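User: what does the whole thing look like in 3D?
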Amino acid sequence: MKIKFIFLLFIAFYLTIIIRLFFLQVIYSPANKSPYLKTNKLYPVRGRIYDQKNQALVLNQNSYQLYVEPKKVEDKDKLLHLLSENLEMEETSISAKLDMSKYWVAIAGGLTQEQKDKFDKLNLKGIGFDYQTKRFYPEASLSAHILGFLGKESQGEDVGYLGLEGFYDRDLRGLPGFLETERDVIGRPILIGVQQRVEAEDGRDLILTIDKNVQEISKKRLLEGLDKYKAKKGCIITANPKTMAILSLVCLPDYDLEKYYLFNENFYKNLAISDLYEPGSVFKPLIMAAALEEKKIKPNDTYNETGQVAVGEYNIKTWNDKYEGKISMTRILEKSSNVGMVYIGEKLGNRKIYNYFEKFGFGQNTGIDLEGEASGYLKPQKNWYPIDYTTVTFGQGIAITPIQMIRAFASIINGGYLMKPYLVQKIVSENKVVEIKPKVERKIFSQTTSDIIKKMLISTIENAEAKWDRPKGYIIGGKTGTAQVPIKGHYDVSKTIASFIGFAPADNPRFLTFVVLYEPKSSPWGSETAAPLFFDVAKDLIVYYGILLSQ
Amino acid sequence: MKNIFLRTTGLMIVGLIVLNLFVMIYGIVLSDEINNFEQKTDKLHKINLTLEKEVANLSSLKFAQEQAKEFDFTNSSAPQYIDQLKYAYR
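Assistant: Here's the predicted 3D structure for the full assembly of 641 residues, as structure tokens:
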């Protein structure tokens, strides 16, 4: 009888437990979840960015967000004082954030491991840290405009802005995972409970075509150039003319990637891809190449340069208003004769000029893998006036970006191929490497035209009116440019955009470099500002690449 | 017969209790290990990022420039192969 009683007591006891558990876990529990069940988002590691030699340009580093739990704070004044001292923030601004009625208040983000360790030693009650990662730039702002930066979107999630961070945001960010796990009070997993883990997929790494040494050379030289020629801003772009793989791209002024938020957004603008300008005389070889391709002229044809040329109500003249009489087509480029170019434009014809602009891709994006590219504007042919066809032959009256200019120029010296410019050569994920090959958009010129124009451009440097300090023993081709700046329907004579585009070694170009200086004050001419700057860069690159003497 | 049944049941209950205890203790040990490994993985991840940063710093141009300054490797000591080719053939 006693045994039966005990047995029934046990049954009743267990039934009570089972019913209670049923109520707790099934009836009352929200979403049928155990109070020990925790769901955590597993954040992927954002992809890193390396240069062509696998040298890091962007990495991730440990970072902490410091928060305060006001209800646990014992001495508010002491806490404010210590926070202010260690965070280098004003006590008043911390005090303004620290709302004592709340349970959790974020105070500062982006703390380093060393800063966190310092706080840990202070053993302050009521403060805590959330782990985060932040971007780290071993080369500081060497490639600010190329890289872009990592900011926050409206929901507080990380998002890449501009440059590569913006363009490849989806590849870089990866996919978050989650961890659903039942844990006991000290955080150990309860093995008989729910344990579900979906691993995060880390972001993909980018391997660039950029060479950080070329980037450094360009930036150093551009900085010196801006200072020497007192220019407002400027860019140097260096590319492999055969593939349009960008080797360096620097525009100044730029900004500090670590503290991008301190800069006005005008500094974020990458002039090389988003600033439209009238190219001026560097544009002349494009028209010359088109006329050669269409067999409208030959290099040794002559033009009688007698004086100014009237087009409608406008008079076109040479830059120094001097005229040499009978000159060859090559000489037109050498002395950068505007009237000579008007003659070539007339030979080529309006329709062909416009066709070639379309072939060069003006008015369209080049497709470069950087966020923020401007397409430029090529107005419909029906809106062109006769004077427009005249002025475009010497690079005025058309607005393009520097990247469009260098791409078009590459096509005339690389055998006639219009290439898509690119900066990323490999996208590396955990178990896959995607290689990005050079892409031919279209073939515009024959090899013969390309060879002829290259010779003309070499001659342009050899016989230019300005004498430059060129690297001796090396054959270099190129062209200067001085463009006027249009303001409210007319050209401002006091402002110019000086440029130079050149390649070396001329027989088999290893690099093509485009230098643009905006509003230089020491001299308005490209031949006296951008050209010497180009030769400084070229000298450094010849040494860096170990290019052998041509002569 | 009844005795055998009772003994077997008793032994089974004792066996199950021992097994239960073993599973419970083993579970706690495993949980501890998992917890430990999770913490170690986190720590390794952080150390990895720190080391990656240090390596990148050491191979950076910024560091090379600092070193050049420290060792007084200035423009005057840089070879000028392009302008003065005689140096290149020495």
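In plain terms: The first helix of chain B runs from residue 2 to 58. Chain B has a mean pLDDT of 82.
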